[in-house]
Design a protein that fits this description.
Blueprint: E1 3-12, E2 17-26, E3 31-35, H1 42-50, E4 57-65, E5 68-69, E6 80-83, H2 95-102, H3 110-122, H4 138-151, E7 156-160, H5 168-185, E8 189-192, E9 204-207, E10 211-214
Parallel strand pairs: 3-8, 3-9, 6-7, 7-8
Antiparallel strand pairs: 1-2, 1-4, 4-5, 9-10
Length: about 220
């Protein structure tokens, strides 16, 4: 399962281009990192892949997941998981309900709670099952957010500055854990960051003006 971006050009409606003819392949199980200054189009590129591009932009080119052209599908049918710098957990749902919400529709009834609890056991946070997001720490919310994304069984993962709001010690710990979880999920992942320390060891980095190199 590979994510292929072919000749992606993103323009503002004013006519100014963020960038021209970007080509990129993210392989199955790979985490590719995008680095560059604010405003160069990193997060906008993630929006193109996910199908959430703002109306102030337009783009040309194709986003392919193996033989499927994602650019022809609505956002909810793309199977793209997104992790932001804010955890975006539902404040009115307890932790296990937040996780259960992400499960595919094929999982029915009490099985949703069972799978949510199994996921919490996997990340050693079962004790938080009945807690609400505002009752747990930022690090715990971050781990639950990633777990929720992966429970939805995405075919691609997008991470937009996912560690930027964590303090240094927690950031290192969470970063290593995220890399481990994504490798286990074995899906292509694209991560946006400003911090070179966030780049997984030995992985590829695409730096503005979009030149490829290795960490």
């Amino acid at each position: 399962m590979c994510l292929n971006l072919n000749n992606i050009t993103i323009k503002k409606n004013s006519g100014d281009a963020l960038f021209f003819s970007l080509n990129m392949t993210v392989k199955q199980g790979e985490i590719l990192t995008l680095m560059g200054p604010s405003g160069c189009g990193k997060s906008t590129l993630l929006d193109v892949i996910a199908g959430h591009l703002s109306e102030e932009f337009s783009y040309s080119g194709t986003v392919m997941l193996d033989s499927v052209d994602l650019s022809q599908l609505p956002a909810h049918k793309r199977n793209v998981g997104i992790l932001f710098q804010d955890d975006l957990l539902f404040p009115h749902l307890c932790v296990w309900e937040n996780l259960a919400f992400a499960l595919p529709n094929s999982v029915k009834g009490n099985e949703r709670k069972i799978q949510a609890m199994q996921a919490l056991e996997h990340i050693s946070l079962v004790k938080l099952a009945e807690s609400f997001p505002d009752q747990i720490s930022g690090g715990q919310r971050a781990r639950i957010s990633l777990t929720r994304m992966l429970l939805a069984k995405p075919k691609v993962a997008l991470l937009d500055e996912p560690f930027s709001k964590l303090d240094k010690d927690l950031r290192i710990q969470f970063r290593d854990w995220v890399v481990e979880q994504l490798k286990e999920a074995n899906i292509p992942a694209l991560m946006v960051t400003h911090d070179k320390e966030d780049v997984p060891q030995g992985s590829r980095v695409l730096t503005w003006p979009w030149e490829m190199n290795h960490a």
